[in-house]
């Protein structure tokens, strides 16, 4: 099972990390090194170009890596660097179907490998890392606190850490110069966790998901709570615009994270997201039940902001606009992010436009635009709502400009016939009669049997 997992993990990680780096050039070995770990030895190959065609760890005492085409910088001398008590020999075969062959002194040694980006990431470059563990080494059964203990040991005076962990790796640059480098010896599982967290913080959610799943498949307990939560958040961020397609999968991942999370605020925040997903998926009663349960608890302001916002949106889904606005105002009084505040102002403004309170609506819509100037890029509807509010206030020149802007953003809008009719009316009210007439004719010819065409016909009848 472990061998199957190794092959699967390699293929998945490769497919996510390096699809954009693969090209027809030869793979070049640019740098290599070895370090002593607690279990055995780690060899690191810094490569540029295509990924390996095949990595075979089953033919021990040799481990073979095959490439479509392989080259080695002439200044690299593997015997000076890689020969250890475990690694007997390293050979390179260059050219087409080139290989790296590692001969291990212990034929029963356990070998693990992983492919990771370089640090810092560079286009077309990656690290191929092997951990070689002697057959005599007993792999300890990991307890939930074991890794924490290891981490506490690392927080000793810095000079001790350096003296115990220091190792040198020969660096070969394009100019054939060399320099020394130091890499901290940490377990593979910790390696994967750190890479996943770095990807999550940089919002590389696809990469983070692959690494979080890889960590969980290793059945490690040290970071399990954080990994489950961040995996769910990464999946949510990656697919939140397609909630109608991935919503139930998001809920499943969040509920799995809930089983491991004990922090009250964290639990409430996750449940609020789950309620939001249920509401958008049309399961409004289930969403309302979750929110009512949360309201009975004492929670911090940032969580209450999410809850009151969700209550407002649930009321709106149940056709209760007055109650919805009241709840959304309560959300604005809590500690929420600027993006959430802008979204709430937009929602209130949209409700007020539909009820005909154009002046109040314009206040909230303008607030949303001031708080988040790029909100119209992900929510173009805000431009249409501003234009509609201005039209209702008889500010025809400004309304015309906003409605045309919206149609430039959404040329295939389902309401384009009605909006063009409103723009034609704006021209008419500004005494631009020829423009108004031409636009009205365009709507009646190109969009017959639509609401916009009927409005124009009625308007012309009134002017007779």
UniProtKB/TrEMBL annotation:
The record's listing under Gene3D superfamilies reads: Tetratricopeptide repeat domain
Q: Give the signal peptide as a residue range, or say none if absent.
A: 1-26
KW Signal (keyword) present: yes
Keyword terms, alphabetized: Signal, TPR repeat
- Domain Tetratrico peptide repeat group span(s) in chain numbering: 250-346
Query: What Pfam family is a match, any one?
Result: TPR_5
- InterPro entries attached here? TPR-like_helical_dom_sf, TPR_5, TPR_rpt
Q: Does the keyword Chloroplast apply?
A: no
Q: Where are the TPR repeats?
A: 342-375
Protein name (Swiss-Prot/TrEMBL): Tetratricopeptide repeat protein
